[in-house]
Design goal:
This protein is of the alpha+beta class. The chain has two helices and two strands. It has one domain. The longest helix has 28 residues.
């Protein structure tokens, strides 16, 4: 079964009247092929979740300090939300989907 990693990215502006609509980026994280009861399966899941967070949160130019901070915040929040589900899945050692969202 596939896992869907959903990250909702919000664009903020100084004025609420100029705020952008919510942007949603998604990616699928496969887990059914992993043995989550093993350390190697758990490491593989962690790598996949980290890669998915990078995909949905994106990247910012080194010259864009505010953008880099926003990307970093998005990744931290996205992975924190995924971690709760990850831990539950490992405890259950199942291949069920993981749903992750970031604001």
């Amino acid at each position: 079964m596939t896992k869907t990693l959903i990250a909702m990215l919000m664009a903020f502006s100084a004025s609420p009247a100029l705020s952008q609509p919510v942007s949603i980026a998604t990616t699928t994280v496969q887990t059914a092929d992993l043995d989550l009861s093993s350390k190697s399966g758990q490491r593989a899941l962690d790598l996949r979740l980290n890669q998915a967070a990078k995909e949905v949160c994106g990247y910012a130019s080194d010259a864009d300090v505010a953008g880099k901070n926003e990307v970093r915040r998005c990744r931290v929040e996205t992975l924190a939300k995924a971690e709760r589900e990850r831990d539950q899945r490992i405890a259950n050692s199942s291949g069920s989907p993981i749903e992750v969202a970031a604001r």
